[in-house]
Structures are given as structure tokens and as C-alpha cells.
Amino acid sequence: MNFLRDINHVPINTETIDRVKLEKKSGKNIYETICILEKISHKISNDIKVDMDKKLEEFNMMNKNNLEEIFENKEQIELSRFYENLPKATSISIQYLLDEKIKT
């Protein structure tokens, strides 16, 4: 799954979702639904971390060459802000379920 392309309509704020609606979408009881969402959420979280680490590695390579000079890198700050403003992995997984992008 490409999480960055699918997060356009994922709410950033916490929203209450009817559990019956989640059960109907998954076809399972609420406990099994939560387990499914937890696994998907874990995968999304790991994917985000790997993606961010790859992008930050470029900045680490640049800083290794200039050990004496430590300076603010605006691109690195913007990248960090982008990842901070992403919706939580649990919100993304719930939206995937509601959009029927998860096969249960």
C-alpha cells in the first residue's frame, strides 16, 4: 500500500466512528476488527518510519562531511513537519477499512 498517496481524505483530528459500521465493513465482530486494524496500523507505521528514515539519511550523509559545521537545514525541517502533520497510522487504517481497501 502506498500510504502517502491515499491519505488525502483521512481526518487528522479524532472522530467518533460507529462500531456497528466498522463491524459491517469488516464482516467480523468488533474484537476481530480491532485486531485487523492494529495489524494494518502497525504496517503503516513501519512504512512511514522506513520512508522517513530513507529521506533523513540523505541529510545525515551531508552532515558527516561537515562535522565542524552544524547548521539548520530548512529542507530537513520541512520534511520533519510533513511527517509530523500526517494523520496517525490508526486513522489511516480505519479509513482504509471504511473505504473497503482492506480485504478481511
Written overview of the protein:
The protein has 104 residues and is mainly alpha-helical. It has four helices and no strands. Helix 2 (30-65) packs antiparallel against helix 3 (74-84).
Write a short abstract of this structure.
With 104 residues, the protein is an all-alpha fold. Helices cover 62% and strands 0% of the residues.
User: Overall mean pLDDT score?
Assistant: 82
N-to-C CA distance: 15 Å
Instruction: Point out poorly predicted stretches.
Output: none
Summarize the biggest pleated sheet: none
Shape: elongated
Radius of gyration: 18 Å
**Helix percent band:** 55-70%
Comma- or semicolon-separated keywords:
104 residues; mainly alpha; 4 helices; elongated
Layout of helices and strands:
Layout lengths: L18 H8 L3 H36 L8 H11 L4 H10 L6
